[in-house]
């Protein structure tokens, strides 16, 4: 009985620790790799200026007030992309282009890059670097559900919308219940949008979207985990406990992280 | 995830319903809207001779009640159901009531279409009289008497004196081509055309006839003149085909010309042999008088109900004298109201009209909608150019046409942003004319997909030479009427029919069509049909024609579904028919089974064949004169003999309703059989599943109550690249289609039977909302697309603060879920992406809406819950550990 309760405690703690701590490590790792890749793309002028592959870097985002410095924005806003950093909604134009660009980011897990958006005030600077140059936006409003949508920008203007999850009080950084949108207008004129068609974003890529694509993957991971646990029990009979611990723990940890990554992709994308 | 329980529920439901329920199609009358104007008239008719002393002697009188199913909004070639009771039973009956020789029946119930107003007050030119009634041949309007010269019509007490003379209506000069041998006793009833031309009087030929009656062969449609049979109980019924000036310009009904259906219950001539008031020359005398009186007062040489065997009927009671005053005064006139003629829009001038290309399924719908546009100056008229759906789609994709009426989307999606706006839920029907063992039309045919597969695959030999010479089919039943599967399903149909070739096939389309795809999908969805097509014999041992096998291990096997049903059999028998002689085929041998199948390019041709029970099997070798040289060619078998008919064809539901065709109930996923009706279409509407990937709704073959041959009729229009005029006109059409066009009825602008209107009550609210939204998107031409959203998918986020590049104004959607516009999410997976062009939106002055909230239980409660669970479990283990330690400490508990 104690054994079962211990497992429950371990699982619960793992559920808290993984997305917040290990997830953050994973995000930082992804950011480093993406930054290196995007830097070279910028220098070679090969950075994308239109729709590109899921997970590809498309912009650098700096929001001094929210503690973001050169965060790499990736293409796509599914759960998997947002584990790497802020994501660009595929049905919107890229930042700096005429029209409305929309970026989504996580508030709590995987580094929570957008966790401090609620500290922004009107007039704050948001700086974005894409393959088309550096663009400075100024925050207009912070918007919550129920507020009126902003007037669409003029044909030569650009608007940036940052979206994430938030909540009241302590919930804001642990258990968000609502959404936060930051509307910002571009200083100066926008560059024309790429002449390629945009792509409709499915519901799983909208704010609070949930994708169940990785369900199968999760099942596979869990099966592996189960087999490994069974193997470890068998080994402990043959080899004794200590040696088994030595061999099994790294394998189990790796499998647990794999399973957790798959499970975390089914969390709401901006959590 | 959500689909799994739904699918399980569906499977459970299906198995539950599999056993018992058998749904039959609704009665034909139920489909006719209240504005059809059904009419019932009762009239007392009598035959009363005038004795020599001047007293009236009543021989017979009857009270006849006549009902006509529809007298309003009639269209070209439309059949109306005519039923009557109380009439005198017909004697000396013939099989085909539309044949000219049917006039020789005794006491027939004659039905004619006549031009004019039946009132003595009307001016002669507009009055309805025998001269304005249509008959197919001149023999039905000319009477001669070789015996005494005093035919019964000359003794008719009700004829005016002028009409009782020797030669009435005989043209002068006498037509040179006519036989002038009758010196006396001749009566001609002229035909006067709508243009005022008197055909009998023109004398160009003998007799001169209007052009519409020139061709009388069994391949063309028969005359609508009907000499119907009254049964022994005084009742009878028949379908009367109403003609407009489009079918018969000489009769010229429709438009401003009034016409009526005239029923003449033939009672026989009321004789006045004494003819006191007439001059001596018009009075029979002596022996002639006796014989003339006997002929006039005859009551029939056949027993009621007895079939005609020779030419010895009593003329006085035959249908040939329908025009005589005695019969004519007994007539029941039912005025007919016509829908605007099809050419009404050509007359008003469709100069700037837009063309809509595509599906023949829409024919009846567009025919009723079109006048509502061309007669309304505020609307831009449109024209429906009928094309196969795949062809229309191709033309739309390359930009040749601006709008395509289709059912399915293209396999790989449209290359440019396009909306597919639903117009109505309709489908195809398996129409048929089959007479039962009592030689009456069989009204409740049931068919399975396997039977359809047998007909389509030419697996019945059809003719005996094929059965005898073609080993692959030699053990199969000769035709469907002899198939045990068919007879078990449809008891009461004679096994074996005279025209076994026609009974071995189904008249189908030869062109590419979405109907073929729906038909073959239906067949392929049925496990029994599929197994049979794969080569497994049916329980009675019938096997598939090897040329049509779908067995994947066979080279060149057929893969279903298809857009075009192929003609694959190439067997050529040594003998071509039972007698072994067919000069055409002997001279030029060719595969026989495709000739029997004889598919046609148009659904409308199939409706025509079904309306008149025409067999299309190309087996008749006809001698033709071509510029003096005699040749021969294969032609269709033509009309079948009433009482022994057996033809089937694929028609549109709209045509089946309009031409009042009998339609088969088709087997569903379970063991139920469902015929087309509003109810079964509504059931189909309920199971339509939204398919965002294809941008439309699809009809899964999962329901046991839905009509299996249901198809959603849509209008595909690109949302970019149209000029303003076209965009506006098409947008108007869509708005109309989603609103006032969806009233069920037969009037201009309404939705005729056979099409389930797009209303929320019919379960088509989401489709209607899509069409309304599509109208806006088409008007805007901003390159936006629409995703059909499923009503049960919960509302999802609007793109906050980002009026997306292709944003449309809010659309009134009623209580249905609004279709998603542009990049707003639907149930779309990651692939393949819908394409939206990034057209910058002109600045709007007002906020486009409110930021919407999305609630996520997972986000709100996951981490607190995990923490709570951990803490609780930790505390529990602490408590548990303590009690255990306590127990260990207790002496004796160790044991």
C-alpha geometry of chain A: elongated
Number of helices of chain B: 20
Q: Please state the overall shape of chain B, judged from the principal axes of the Cα atoms.
A: elongated
Tally of separate domains of chain A = 2
Quick rundown:
The complex is a heterodimer of chains A (271) and B (895). Helices cover 35% and strands 22% of the residues of chain A.
Structure write-up:
- The complex is a heterodimer of chains A (271) and B (895).
- Chain A is of the alpha+beta class and 271 residues long.
- Chain A folds into 2 domains: 22-205, Sortase, Chain: A; 213-264.
- Helix content of chain A is 35%, strand content 22%.
- In chain B, the strands form 8 sheets. In chain B, strands 12, 13, 14, 15, 19, 20 and 25 form a 7-stranded mixed beta sheet that branches. Chain B has a 4-stranded antiparallel beta sheet with strand order 1-2-3-9, with no helix packed on it. In chain B, strands 8-4-10-11 form a 4-stranded antiparallel beta sheet, with no helix packed on it.
- Chain B is elongated.
- Chain B is 22% helix and 18% strand.
- Chain B starts with a helix and ends in a 6-residue tail after the last helix.
- The longest helix of chain B has 33 residues, at 857-889.
- Chain B is an alpha+beta fold and 895 residues long.
- Chains A and B meet through helix 1, strand 4, strand 7, strand 8 and strand 9 of A and strand 28 and helix 20 of B.
């Amino acid at each position: 009985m104690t054994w079962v309760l211990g497992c429950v405690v371990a699982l619960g703690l793992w559920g808290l620790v993984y997305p917040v701590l290990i997830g953050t490590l994973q995000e930082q790792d992804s950011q480093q790799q993406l930054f290196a890749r995007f830097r070279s793309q910028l220098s070679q002028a090969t950075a994308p200026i239109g729709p590109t592959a899921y997970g590809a870097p498309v912009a650098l985002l700096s929001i001094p007030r929210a503690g973001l410095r050169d965060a790499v924005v990736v293409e796509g806003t599914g759960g998997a992309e947002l584990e790497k950093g802020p994501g660009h909604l595929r049905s919107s134009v890229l930042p700096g282009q005429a029209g409305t660009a929309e970026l989504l980011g996580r508030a709590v897990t995987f580094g929570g890059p957008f966790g401090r958006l609620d500290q922004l005030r009107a007039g704050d600077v948001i700086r974005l670097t894409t393959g088309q140059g550096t663009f400075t936006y100024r925050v207009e409003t912070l918007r919550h559900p129920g507020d009126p949508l902003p007037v669409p920008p003029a044909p030569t203007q650009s608007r940036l919308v940052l979206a994430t999850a938030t909540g009241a009080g302590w919930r804001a950084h642990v258990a968000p219940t609502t959404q936060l949108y930051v509307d910002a207008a571009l200083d100066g004129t926008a560059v024309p949008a790429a002449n390629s068609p945009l792509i409709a974003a499915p519901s799983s890529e909208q704010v609070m979207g949930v994708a169940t694509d990785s369900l199968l993957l999760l099942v596979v991971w869990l099966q592996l985990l189960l087999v490994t646990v069974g193997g470890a029990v068998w080994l402990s009979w043959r080899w004794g406990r200590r040696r088994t611990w030595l061999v099994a723990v790294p394998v189990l940890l790796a499998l647990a992280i794999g399973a957790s990554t798959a499970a975390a992709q089914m969390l709401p994308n901006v959590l | 995830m959500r689909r799994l329980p739904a699918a399980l529920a569906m499977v459970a439901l299906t198995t539950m319903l599999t056993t018992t329920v058998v749904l039959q199609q609704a009665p034909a009358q139920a489909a006719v809207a209240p504005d059809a104007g059904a009419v019932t008239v009762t009239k007392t008719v009598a035959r009363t001779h005038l004795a020599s002393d001047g007293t009236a002697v009543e021989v017979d009188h009857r009270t006849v009640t006549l009902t006509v199913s529809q007298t309003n909004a009639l269209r070209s070639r439309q059949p109306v159901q005519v039923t009557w009771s109380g009439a005198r039973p017909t004697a000396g009956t013939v099989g085909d009531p539309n044949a000219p020789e049917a006039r020789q029946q005794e006491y027939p119930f004659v039905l004619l279409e006549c031009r004019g107003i039946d009132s003595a007050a009307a001016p002669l030119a507009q009055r309805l009289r025998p001269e304005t009634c249509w008959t197919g041949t001149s023999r039905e309007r000319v009477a001669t008497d070789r015996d005494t010269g005093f035919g019964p019509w000359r003794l008719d007490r009700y004829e005016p004196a002028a009409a009782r003379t020797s030669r009435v209506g005989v043209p002068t000069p006498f037509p040179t081509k006519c036989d002038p041998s009758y010196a006396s006793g001749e009566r001609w009833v002229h035909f006067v055309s709508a243009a005022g031309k008197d055909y009998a009087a023109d004398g160009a030929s003998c007799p001169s006839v209007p052009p519409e009656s020139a061709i009388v062969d069994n391949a063309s449609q028969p005359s609508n003149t009907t000499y119907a049979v009254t049964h022994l109980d005084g009742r009878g019924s028949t379908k009367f085909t109403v003609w407009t000036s489009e079918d018969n310009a000489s009769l010229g009904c429709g438009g401003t010309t009034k016409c009526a259906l005239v029923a003449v219950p033939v009672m026989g001539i009321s004789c006045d042999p004494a003819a006191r008031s007439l001059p001596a020359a018009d009075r029979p005398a002596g022996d002639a008088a006796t014989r003339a009186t006997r002929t006039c007062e005859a009551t029939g040489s056949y027993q009621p109900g007895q079939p005609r065997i020779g030419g010895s009927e009593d003329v006085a009671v035959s249908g040939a004298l329908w025009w005589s005053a005695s019969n004519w005064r007994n007539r029941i006139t039912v005025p007919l109201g016509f829908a605007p003629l099809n050419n009404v829009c050509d007359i008003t001038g469709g100069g700037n009209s837009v063309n809509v290309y595509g599906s023949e399924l829409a024919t009846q719908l567009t025919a009723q909608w079109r006048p509502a546009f061309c007669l309304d100056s505020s609307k831009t008229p449109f024209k429906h150019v009928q094309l196969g759906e795949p062809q229309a789609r191709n033309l739309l994709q390359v930009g040749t046409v601006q709008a395509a009426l289709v059912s399915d989307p293209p396999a790989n999606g449209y290359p440019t942003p396009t909306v597919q706006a639903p117009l109505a839920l309709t489908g195809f029907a398996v129409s048929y004319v089959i007479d039962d063992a009592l030689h009456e039309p069989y009204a409740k045919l049931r068919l399975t997909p396997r039977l359809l597969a047998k007909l389509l695959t030419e697996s019945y030999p059809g003719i005996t030479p094929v059965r005898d010479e073609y080993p692959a089919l030699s053990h199969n039943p000769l035709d469907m009427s002899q198939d045990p599967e068919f007879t078990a399903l449809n008891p009461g149909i004679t096994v074996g029919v005279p025209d076994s070739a026609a009974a071995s096939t189904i008249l189908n389309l030869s062109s590419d069509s979405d109907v073929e795809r729906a038909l073959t999908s239906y067949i392929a969805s049925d496990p029994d049909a599929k197994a049979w097509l794969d080569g497994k014999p049916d329980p009675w041992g019938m096997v598939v024609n090897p040329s049509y096998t779908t067995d994947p291990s066979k080279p060149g096997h057929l893969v279903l579904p298809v857009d075009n049903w192929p003609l694959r059999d190439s067997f050529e028998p040594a003998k071509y028919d039972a007698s072994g002689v067919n000069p055409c085929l002997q001279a030029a041998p060719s595969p026989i089974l495709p000739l029997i199948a004889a598919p046609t390019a148009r659904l409308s041709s199939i409706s025509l064949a079904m309306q008149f029970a025409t067999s299309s099997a190309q087996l008749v070798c006809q001698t033709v004169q071509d510029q003096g040289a005699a040749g021969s060619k294969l032609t269709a078998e033509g009309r079948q003999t009433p009482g022994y008919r057996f033809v089937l064809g694929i028609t549109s539901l709209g045509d089946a309703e309009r031409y009042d065709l009998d339609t088969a109930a088709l087997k569903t996923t379970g063991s139920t059989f469902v015929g087309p009706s509003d109810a079964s279409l509504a059931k189909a509407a309920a199971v339509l599943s939204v398919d965002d990937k294809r941008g439309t709704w699809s009809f899964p073959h999962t329901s046991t109550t839905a009509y299996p041959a249901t198809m959603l009729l849509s209008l595909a229009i690109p949302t970019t690249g149209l000029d303003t005029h076209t965009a506006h006109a098409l947008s108007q059409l869509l708005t109309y289609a989603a609103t006032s066009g969806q009233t069920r009825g037969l009037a201009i602008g309404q939705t005729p039977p056979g099409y389930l209107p797009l209303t929320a009550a019919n379960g088509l609210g989401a489709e209607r909302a899509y069409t309304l939204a599509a109208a806006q998107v088409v008007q805007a031409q901003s390159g936006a697309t629409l995703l059909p959203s499923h009503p049960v998918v919960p509302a999802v986020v609007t793109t906050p603060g980002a009026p997306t590049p292709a944003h449309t104004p809010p659309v009134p959607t009623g209580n249905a879920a609004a279709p998603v516009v542009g990049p707003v999410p639907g149930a779309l997976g990651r692939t393949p992406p819908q394409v939206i062009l990034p057209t910058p939106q002109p600045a709007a002055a007002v906020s486009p809406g409110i930021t919407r909230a999305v609630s996520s239980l997972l986000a709100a409660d996951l981490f607190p819950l995990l923490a709570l669970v951990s803490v609780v479990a930790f505390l529990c283990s602490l408590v548990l550990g303590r009690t255990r330690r306590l127990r260990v400490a207790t002496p004796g508990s160790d044991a």
